Amino acid sequence: MSAPGTPIVVLSAVGKAFASGIEALDRLDLEVRSGEFLSLLGPSGCGKSTALRLIAGLSEPSRGAIAWTGSDKRADGSGDIGFVFQEPTLMPWATVFSNAYLPLKLAGMSKDDAAPRVNESLAGVGLADFANAFPRQLSGGMKMRVSIARALATRPKLLLMDEPFAALDEITRFKLNNDLLTVWRSLGTTVVFVTHSVFESVYLSSRIVVMTSRPGRVFTELAIDAPYPRHESFRTSADYAGYCRLASQALTGAMAAGQAR
Amino acid sequence: MNAVGPIAPKPGALAEGYARRDRVLRALLPVAALALGILVWDLVVRIKAIPPYVLPGPVLVAETLAGDWVILWHALLATLATTFEGLLLALAGGIGLAVLFNQSRLLEYSLYPYAVILQVTPVVAIAPLLLIYLPQQAAVLACAWIVAFFPVLANTTLGLNSVDRNLGDLFELYGASRWQRLIHLKLPAALPYMLGGLKIAGGLSLIGAVVAEIAAGSAGAGSGLAYRIAESGYRLNIPRMFAALILLSIAGIAIYFALSLLSYLMLRRWHESAIDAES
């Protein structure tokens, strides 16, 4: 793994236009650095999710380049990237264990070989006792935990998360925020987290990139220098309120800039 | 009304009581309607003194059913054998074609229209032709297959195309091969649709077998239940015709329930259609 802070992947002047003519991204410059918790913050339709899909290789840029550096270069299907969608996106016909096992199964790893890693992933998100349950038996928050465990099963260097907690109630979201931070710190992975919540991005991130809308580009970025581990007490601290004010102002500016064009 | 709090039952218990009464009614009403129908049938035959070669009474039909049991039972087995063979072939053909179509657009565009044509052409019209070109048993089987395979094909095709897009992306992200995608994603996602198609195909396969047997029966040969119906018709043995018809209906109902049970057993752990509201 590369030293903390060195770039893993660099997007240079990346543009994405869809066949429908909608221009989702325009000259996006973005650097993802090893070990960081990076949030992409912006209004709906600013191309945050598109940027994430481009990084994951699920879609190709229309213009510009996406460069992977050093040992983190992505090989197709290597499992170096984990992806968590806005919906839990579980296979309803498979147990919790089988869902979390999927990436390793597709990579050709036998169930016996994979079991320790899958069980560890499930334990990491507090689902050790639910390995044999089916998704329909779980609450929304638990389904999202399975989705995270699945993404972590391959020990990815880069974890991409597309508004994963947007559909959850606030109490569940807070709890998952804390658990996500714990997992991120213990695995030393890099996270790119897409959200439209100022409060969530400040609480989680070491760095926030604020984007303008349609077509999306970087408006400004913000370092959140509050130390980890962060706990619930951080949510009520003056530091937190200060960062939230800064992020809100940046978001307001980004929206105004988006409308001006 | 003077319903005081402590005396009134809890709303939940009340709703449960209504639900139970509803279930009992739903089970009893069809039986009561059937009994009433048989009673009216019997009375009409007796009062109007209708001769048995026009309309036999229920008692005579029951006696015929018992008396001709050996003939009818063997005929029923022959028809059921054709139905199940047709159904199995329809399942293999329908799912196989759907998977092929799903893997190759070219193949789908070339052949799907002809699958539709095969479906919309009435099997009664095809049966006599098939009987000319094929040995009788093969022709009967072909008819059962023709009517039964399309619902399996159409439903499986729909199911294979109804995969959650995010799950599809996930498989792509992890570098899944075409084969892995088919086995671990598309086929399981299509299973509820396939089973729905199978339920329809079961009844249709019986219809196809009966149609072909009747067409074959008019050519003077056959062994199935439908052949017995045609034969009884020529001989004006109306009571046996009724008895055979009743057996045929029971066979159809049994097939439907057997396939429903199969569907329930295969889906009960995960699919909405097979999950009780309470669990």
Q: H/E element string of chain A? A: EEEHEEHHHEHEHEEHH
Element string of chain B (H = helix, E = strand): HHHHHHHHHH
- Our count of helices of chain B gives 10
Q: What's the number of structural domains of chain A?
A: 2
If helices are DSSP runs of H or I spanning 4 or more residues, what is the number of helices of chain A? 8
Strand segment tally of chain B = 0
Spans of at least 5 consecutive residues with low confidence of chain B: 1-5
Largest pleated sheet of chain B: none
Shape of chain A: globular
Shape of chain B: flat
First-to-last CA distance of chain A: 41 Å
CATH topology of the largest domain in chain A: Rossmann fold
- Low-pLDDT stretches of chain A are none
Keywords:
heterodimer, A: 261 residues, alpha/beta, Rossmann fold, 2 domains, 6-stranded mixed sheet, 3-stranded antiparallel sheet, 8 helices, B: 279 residues, mainly alpha, 10 helices, 80% helix, disordered N terminus
What is the strand and helix layout of this fold?
The complex is a heterodimer of chains A (261) and B (279).
Chain A: E1 7-17, E2 23-33, E3 37-41, H1 48-56, E4 63-68, E5 81-84, H2 96-106, H3 111-124, H4 140-152, E6 158-162, H5 170-187, E7 190-195, H6 198-204, E8 207-211, E9 218-223, H7 232-235, H8 238-260
Parallel strand pairs in A: 3-7, 3-8, 5-6, 6-7
Antiparallel strand pairs in A: 1-2, 1-4, 8-9
Helix pairs in contact in A: 2-3, 2-4, 3-4, 6-8
Chain B: H1 11-47, H2 58-67, H3 69-103, H4 105-120, H5 123-133, H6 136-160, H7 165-173, H8 178-217, H9 225-234, H10 238-267
Could you explain the architecture of this structure?
The complex is a heterodimer of chains A (261) and B (279). By secondary structure, chain A is of the alpha/beta class. Chain A has two domains: 7-80 and 158-260, P-loop containing nucleotide triphosphate hydrolases (Rossmann fold); 87-155. Chain A is 38% helix and 23% strand. Chain A has eight helices and nine strands. Chain A has helices at 48-56, 96-106, 111-124, 140-152, 170-187, 198-204, 232-235, 238-260; strands at 7-17, 23-33, 37-41, 63-68, 81-84, 158-162, 190-195, 207-211, 218-223. A six-stranded mixed β-sheet of chain A has the order 5-6-7-3-8-9, with helices on both faces. A three-stranded antiparallel β-sheet of chain A has the order 2-1-4, covered by helices on one side. In chain A, helix 5 links the parallel strand 6 (158-162) and strand 7 (190-195). In chain A, helix 3 (111-124) packs across helix 4 (140-152) and helix 6 (198-204) crosses helix 8 (238-260). The termini of chain A are far apart. The mean pLDDT of chain A is 88. Chain B is mostly helical and 279 residues long. Chain B is 80% helix and 0% strand. In chain B, helix 8 (178-217) runs parallel beside helix 9. Chain B starts with 10 loop residues before the first helix and ends in a 12-residue tail after the last helix. The chains are: A alpha/beta (261), B mainly alpha (279).
